[in-house]
Amino acid sequence: MTNNIPDISFITICYNGFKDTCELIESLQKKVHSVSYEIIVVDNASHENEAAKIRHLYPTVVAIRSNENSGFSGGNNIGIRAAKGKYIFLINNDTYIESDNIACLIERLESRPEIGGVSPKIRFAFPPQHIQFAGFTPLSRITLRNNMLGFDCPDDGTFDTPHSTPYLHGAAMMLKREVIEKAGMMPEIFFLYYEELDWSTSMTRAGYELWYDPRCTVFHKESQSTGQLSKLRTYYLTRNRLFYARRNLKGFNRIASIVYQSTVAATKNSLAFILKGRFDLAAAIFYGINSGLFRPSSDKKSIVSPDK
After folding, report:
1. What is the rounded CA–CA span in Å between residue 41 and residue 156?
2. Which InterPro entries match (predicted)?
């Protein structure tokens, strides 16, 4: 890591996750030797100054303290602006690697000029360490739902074939720097959820292909059931599907998707929550629809709590 211009800039966001962030840093420092790199940690206004603690423990790490929580996109954009690497690798702080196959991702990016981004295989960190991500299916035209290939499947070789994917996974994605210059920074309007789908759509619109390459594996500490009944999750998913439709769909599909999200889906989901006694989640849907329909969907910061 003595070069002025490293091969890779690893960028990770830390929000009250000091222990996980340290484990990620140590896994990268211990395992990655095939390429030069820098590690950039963005402390997204954690309760404690975790950037200062990281600088003290890991002097070679670039630790940036943000005075406000600007969300997943905003935090990553802070890191991207500070990055010096030829390739930008966005990686969640609750991940780690066990082997040095990072160069395989560079090899994939350089295999053809039109390939702009690549995500590795992502496996759950907790036993039995099944696959979380082996590529995405396309979003359905009206409902804007999709699936992760290989989800909860054993890593038995079935998903060991590289292939193109319509979207990269936000927990681990590597990009050529030029892609960001052409497609723009990560959209901050979303704050949580759908931002990598929207960003991936911008990349493909700019003429790039996106790929999944299983030769590199990242382990993710996310639980398969994390936040399934969270107010924040319900609010942002409801709002951001509408934002995605307004920003990316055209003509009939745009109108049909907006109408479907704000009527059929909202009514069905609200009634299901009410029947379970979760009036807070039904309210989160209402606020999500209101924001998704009437707030600007342009690429400006928009951090709104479902309680407001």
Report:
1. 34
2. Glyco_trans_2-like (IPR001173), Nucleotide-diphossugar_trans (IPR029044)
Output the six-digit token pair for 288. 């999500």
Other CB atoms within 10 A of residue 213 CB:
24
Compute the distance between CA of residue 51 and CA of residue 66 in angstroms, rounded to an integer.
Answer: 9
Q: Measured between alpha carbons, how far is 84 from 74 in angstroms, rounded to an integer?
A: 18
Q: What residue has token string 């210059």?
A: 181
Cα–chain center distance at 147: 15
Residue 282's H or E segment, with its range, is helix 279-294
> With the C-alpha atoms ordered 300, 303, 306, 308, is the resulting torsion angle positive or negative?
negative
Sign of CA dihedral 79, 220, 196, 37: positive
Tens-digit pLDDT profile for residues 189-203: 998 889 999 999 999
Is residue 229 within 8 Å of residue 281, measured between CB atoms?
yes
CA 189 – CA 74 distance, rounded (Å):
9
- Global pTM? 0.91
DSSP 198-255: HHHHHHHHTT-EEEEEEEEEEEE---TTTTTT-HHHHHHHHHHHHHHHHHH--HHHHH
- Helical (H) or strand (E) element with 102: helix 102-110
User: For residue range 120-170, what is the model confidence (pLDDT) as tens digits?
Assistant: 999 999 999 999 999 999 999 999 999 999 999 999 999 999 999 999 999
Max intra-chain CA distance, the chain: 60
